[in-house]
Amino acid sequence: MSATTFGRGATPATARAAAWTPRQPGRRRRQNLAALGLIWPWLIGFGIFFVYPLVSTVWFSFTHYDQINPPTWVGLRNWRYVFGLHAFWQSLGNTAWLVVVMVSLRVVSGLGLGLLVVRVKRGAGLLRTVFYLPYLAPPVAATIAFAFLLNPGTGPVNTLLSKVGIQGPDWFNDPAWAKPALTLLAVWGVGDLMVIFVASLLDVPAEQYEAAELDGAGPLQRFRYITIPHLRPVLTFAAITGVIATLQYYTQAVVVAQVASGRADQPGAPFDAGYPNGSTLTLPQLVYSMGFQHFETGSACVISVVLFVIAMAFTSVLLRRGAGFIAAED
Amino acid sequence: MADLTESLALTARPRTTGAVKSDQWRRRIGVLEWVGLHAVGLGLAIVFVLPFVFLLLTSVMSSDQALTTDLWPRTWHWENYAQVFRTEGFVTWWKNSLMYAGLGTALTIVSSTPVAYALAKMRFTGRNAALMLVISMMMLPPQVVIVPMYLLWAKQFHLTGTLWPIIIPLAFGDAYSIFLLRQFLLTIPREYIDAAKVDGCGEWRTLLSVVVPMIKPALVAVALFQFFYCWNDYFGPQIYASENPAAWTLSYGLQSFKGAHHVNWNLTMAATLLVMAPVIVIFLLAQRAFIRGVTLTGVKG
């Protein structure tokens, strides 16, 4: 029954898990039809914009397809090609770097700013607004702004650094500094996490802190044994969504590579993905350059499948860990 | 007697002065903590605002001065902003961004609310599976399906070179908006819905006349998120509209702006601020709805 009402929306396993033994078949059917009346447009969209392209992506990954002649089956050739590609492993390495450094710095600074906003007595509202605003800056605009701020020759940051006697690095033009510079940009936009942490921090019952203080617990102990356990679900959520966002990391890297390499100044110049030296290359950029610039459809789809597998692995962790925050009400 | 008071005073006095001392001490630590916290807060606030300040200052410099290490404009050139608007394409990109964001948001709200309602308040076979799928779609990198999607829009519908390939799918529900609305709908007591049913309302009537008025704040928050998502979108316009500059949005056109004025940081910064401005103004006007929405994504439930 579940399979018929849900169509191809559900995989057999999840549908079976969600099915129940209908005690009143008539009522159950009426409810299913009523729900179907509300969700059918979404089901159609799900089929056209999710199931169909996903199946096609997997199929294309085993074919040679130049987007003009019909695709021909080539077996594992694209897979072997992609897995032997230096740029592929470099992208994975860059993503791993961003996950370890950028995501953890974002979580730590979001928590730090949240603690600050919660404890400050005067101007907490204003402070929250100020910390949140950069998150809203459109990524393209924020990235161009940082390309200017961190511009090695005349940028304000290096100008200020030289005033205190420090020779600033080349930031987006130095392979060793490009990712740290992107991390600065990401930490500037940490407002989303800060707001989530503030809400969660305000939820900690004050009595627990008072009781701990009476028992002689210092501020560090209170943080370690009350605050952190209370925040654990939110920390997990922030970490996993951070990893998934990093897998998709695209706009900032593309824009900064164009502006810093000077390609944006020469319309029509070939795009230097991952400038400088592939240090900002990520898998989504490889999908774009293979699929839309070199028309290697099959290889682009191999990378898409890899992205899909990694993203789904982390999403399934989120679904299992986040059972509380997604639990149904009845 | 005197001895007794004396000895009492003697024993009592050190205790009271000690208490006073530790009291003062505690107060002093409290003051220090207060000053320290607020100093850190103020310092960090300045660091977070400084990038905007530098953008603004550079945007009103003369073209020559913008290429120097100067931080403060020698002469103020507000006419830079007028020049940005006169740049070819800029006004068109504004219109396209407004169209994409406005229409996209309206379609998202209309198509996502019924699905969120069904997921939160109706019992049906496969509901949990549907919810899992919504969350999976929310987490899916758009690049996973982009190649077949592009081919579909290019070869079957012949709509590449326009923004329709990124607007039309929003008419079929947006996973993120569905999830957010569903989280909010969970907080609405069932009794209201049951009461409407007893009064003879069908699902659609219940949704439109009972539920929608109750979730207005969430609808505002979701609408804002979607508007900003569309306004900021770079990947979508790049894939589908890059071949046709007349269909570009501000977010996509902005980097080519850097190309058109290649050494003019002042004009580029003015354009950058003009792209940021609508988002920041809308946020300041609707801050409360916004923060509530962000909070909903992560913690409540």
In total, the number of domains of chain B comes to 2
Q: Which radius of gyration of chain A do the C-alpha atoms yield?
A: 25 Å
Distance between the termini of chain B: 70 Å
Q: What's the level 1 CATH class of chain A?
A: Mainly Alpha
Question: How are the strands of the largest sheet of chain A arranged?
Answer: 1-2
Low-confidence stretches of chain B: 1-16
Catalogue the unreliable spans of chain A. Answer: 1-20
Tell me the CATH architecture of chain A: Orthogonal Bundle
Q: How many strand units of chain B?
A: 0
Major beta sheet summary of chain A? 2 strands, antiparallel
Q: If you compute it from the alpha carbons, what radius of gyration of chain B comes out, rounded to the nearest whole angstrom?
A: 29 Å
Q: In DSSP terms, counting alpha (H) and pi (I) runs of 4 or more, how many helices of chain B?
A: 14
Task: Please name the CATH topology of the largest domain in chain B.
Answer: MetI-like fold
Mean pLDDT of chain B: 85
How are the SSEs placed, and which strands pair?
The complex is a heterodimer of chains A (330) and B (301).
Chain A: H1 2-6, H2 12-18, H3 25-60, E1 63-64, E2 72-73, H4 77-83, H5 86-119, H6 124-136, H7 139-149, H8 156-163, H9 178-188, H10 191-202, H11 206-214, H12 219-247, H13 251-260, H14 283-293, H15 297-321, H16 323-326
Antiparallel strand pairs in A: 1-2
Helix pairs in contact in A: 3-15, 4-15, 5-6, 5-9, 5-10, 5-12, 6-10, 7-13, 10-12, 12-15, 14-15
Chain B: H1 2-59, H2 79-86, H3 90-121, H4 127-139, H5 146-156, H6 164-167, H7 175-185, H8 190-198, H9 203-214, H10 216-232, H11 235-241, H12 250-260, H13 265-285, H14 287-298
Helix pairs in contact in B: 1-13, 2-13, 3-7, 3-10, 4-7, 7-10, 8-9, 10-14, 12-13
